[in-house]
């Protein structure tokens, strides 16, 4: 639900604008408010997981997301819809990392790769399925159903979750750890401001305008103060000392790179189909499904390979495949063979499935069991910031060279140059994966524990 929601609603923004008689600026906040709330909720996720239990927090977040979805469908003006979308985003921001914590704690460490791979399948399908589903809902029903569709799914998930999700366990009970309020007041606005500034830079193609420079500068300042606070506090909101482990540090940096490469490609490919190939939103969604299917089919294989060989070797292979399947887009003509394009899309999906999830598994396998809430929070935050950076970079590269009429063959040079940059970014991520491979070998670890290991232990690294 959290993955589909953004892509489904984006399709219907114009329809919602007309129905609620809203301005273009206001209607954009229906999407932006949700995304920024997702980012704002992340920092407190680890503390809440320890305070109330990850399983209980997941159920509360799921209930909140479901309720907010139903209320969004009933909104009668754009101001109310934006406020409800913020509430929905907060619930969604807690839902995803808490779900990762529940899964990681339930897994035998030797099966962590397979578990994370299986749970990644729905998320990777969302970018392709969302636009098609959103267009179908608009054509057959109304924009309200873009929110109402979450309600039966959420209720069914709650009914199953109440019976199956462990709401507490003895080693989760760290409820006495106080909330670091100063740190929360620094990071809650700091992370959304950074994401907003990066995203707005892509829209304006400038870092110097006040609308971009001010939120970027303020966001970076707040995050710098937050980092200092977490490193000096006896009870940090987020345990940044995890970055002292070389393997975890390398894996986290690679999550940032992969986020840029993945989300950068996800924002360029729809524009490739819509502008260069003149396809409508429904056709674009159907053409994007090839990428999602390639990734979804590969995730289980990537999980097994990760559990057997460790995440870094699998990620290196995946990034090589991704780079090799991205480069052809930099030389394809304005009227490419769609069969070839779809084959390349499938191969890109395979490569990104092999490169993304194994790195996340490596990061989580490096920390102790009680540190998982902090690790999942940090991994999700880095992925979100990396996605914003990648999206901004490639939108700036693309739009800086687009002609006055940005459609058809006239846009070919812009897209070829953008795909060249995307290939270069993928190769940059490959360098990071090779560094991670070096660190894991230097530490003498496989990054996963042997089968049937009775406890979750921390990977030891050289001081």
Descriptive overview:
With 463 residues, the chain is mostly helical. The chain has two domains: 1-179, Growth Hormone, Chain: A, CATH 1.20.1250.20; 238-443, MFS general substrate transporter like domains (Growth Hormone, Chain: A), CATH 1.20.1250.20. It is 76% helix and 0% strand. Helix 3 packs parallel to helix 5 (78-106), helix 5 crosses helix 15 (372-399) and helix 15 (372-399) packs antiparallel against helix 16 (412-442).
In whole angstroms, how far apart are the ends?
Answer: 42 Å
Number of strands: 0
**Total tally of structural domains:** 2
Name the CATH superfamily classification of the largest domain. MFS general substrate transporter like domains
Which whole number gives the mean pLDDT? 77
pLDDT below 50 for ≥5 consecutive residues: which ranges? 446-463
Please report the first level of CATH classification, the CATH class of the largest domain: Mainly Alpha
Biggest sheet statistics:
none
Please name the CATH topology of the largest domain: Growth Hormone, Chain: A
CATH architecture of the largest domain: Up-down Bundle
Radius of gyration: 21 Å
Strand content: under 5%
Globular, elongated, flat, extended or rod-shaped: what is the shape? globular
> Helix share of residues?
over 70%
Main structural class: mainly alpha
SSE sequence, one letter per element: HHHHHHHHHHHHHHHH
Query: Number of helical segments?
Result: 16
